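U., I forgot to send this yesterday:
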Amino acid sequence: MSITVYSKPACVQCTATTRALSARGIAFDLIDLTEDDEAMARVTELGYRQAPVVMTADDHWAGFRPDKISALS
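Result:
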């Protein structure tokens, strides 16, 4: 399963999300929205205005969502 986390520096919810994924042994790619204009455009086009944005093959969401993370494992 391919999981991408779009984050920003010093983002508490981003850190909580990546820690929760790592704690469950779930591999993910991390992309810094402040360094990747195309990634920022992609999440903005989807209507997101907060970080992190997590994208899986079948779903995507914003913010720290323990319920969604638990469903991945």
